[in-house]
Amino acid sequence: MSANPPPTDAGAPPAATPRPRSKRRQSDRPRTQFRKLDGILLLDKPRGMSSNQALQRVRHLFRAEKGGHTGSLDPLATGLLPVCFGEATKIAGGLLGARKAYTTVARLGQVTDTDDADGEILRERPVPTLTVEAIDAALSQLVGRIQQRPPIYSALKRGGEPLYAKARRGETVEVETRPVDVHAFELQSAADLLDGVLEPGANPQLRLHVECGSGTYVRSLVRDLGELLGCGAHVAELRRTWVDPFRDPRMWTLEDLQALAARGEPQLEACLLDLEAGMLAWPPVHVDARQAARLQNGQDVPGPYAPAGEVAIVGPHGRAEGLGQVGADGRLKPQRMFRRAGDSDTGA
Fold this sequence. Notes:
22% of the residues lie in helices and 28% in strands. By secondary structure, it is α+β, with helices and mostly antiparallel strands. The chain has 3 domains: 39-98 and 247-269, Pseudouridine synthase (2-Layer Sandwich), CATH 3.30.2350.10; 100-242, Pseudouridine synthase (2-Layer Sandwich); 283-337, PUA domain (Archaeosine Trna-guanine Transglycosylase, Chain: A, domain 4), CATH 2.30.130.10. The protein is globular.
């Protein structure tokens, strides 16, 4: 008698249910042992990665218990992303509002739904004959205190939800304009537009320099520039070059950091700036050891101190003690004081 043929799929017995992974096997996986670590890393964020993804990569690489960044970059963007570890996270919010600089490439003749090259092209328009004078005149209209409409694909929230989530569902969202400060918007290069050898159907590009305050969207600047030039535009490339107070930054790529980590944590930690470097964004107020101890214990120190407003509290030997507030009466009040590894409970 011949052997029975194998059962067909329809008549086959149900496949065995895969056994769940062993809890012991999962628990045996090495877990990152995080540690208290204070400092600031000037990361060169790669293209295609969100700012939070980049933050988590370096936080695990340094094994830092606490980490945060000082202002998101779009996934398309590269460049300076200051990352704060440990006590430095107490000044991250203040650095968020710092002045920033970018170089960007604007592609003319195409409008996208995200205002950058990651989006879908909504419409294409011919690029008119342009001169440097015409471009400069359009740029000048976007400098100063201006009203800007943020991109609909942005992390701004409405009703507790980011605008990009609504946009992805196809909802129509009216985005209101808001005031922003643009300190510089300058043409660096327009060679393919002005040299007279542009290929038919090609989209010329402008290389631009931007300096702006907190809340400014370079994508919106480029979009509005395209409208002023009569052809539309979107961001093809974007790189953040500096953030106050880091005007001449030594940036580290993820590849740099991974190579240093392989050589040991002391090599990796040498990349970090101390807390004092970040405090240069505030006017300093100097105190002695006794006054520093009072502030660390949450007590005011009588003045008169100046200037009024938020200040960097600097203790003996130039040690950054934290952020404080000088009132109209000249008294110095502690706001966010540092508790570094090795400090006593009193902060003295």
